[in-house]
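Predict structure. Chain length: 143.
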Amino acid sequence: MTTIDEIKSLLKSGDVAGAEALCRKALEATPDEAQLKMLFGTCRQLQGDEETFRRIHDELAPEMAKTSSAETLSLWRKYHKLWMALIVGALVIGGAAAGVIVFEKQLEKDDKVMAAPKYYIPPEHQDLYAGPEYEDREISGRE
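Prediction complete.
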């Protein structure tokens, strides 16, 4: 069994710390090995270190465009999918937070409430937005 297979096996069994330790040891011997870097990045992501995960992704992206190794490309596709899922998750969370902030500011501003929260869409992207439109309405019974 190769070191990469051992690391994958440890990850599958849930031993992320063991997989990371083996990655670190293997990277000392072969620091330019793309598969080891991706597995190390995955270990770091699973332990909450998103920054290292993204840094490795950005570092390897140009290299992956040139590689011909089927095994490396297969691992890259999985790594890249995880990266994309993180980006989408960040956008969803960021959009929800922005909507709450706009909603609260509107309430503070002029005692009006929106039928639904408005999201801030930068002017240069407003023509791309096809979401629902909201209308302001007075709050009855507020002092």
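Summary: The two ends are 73 Å apart (CA to CA).
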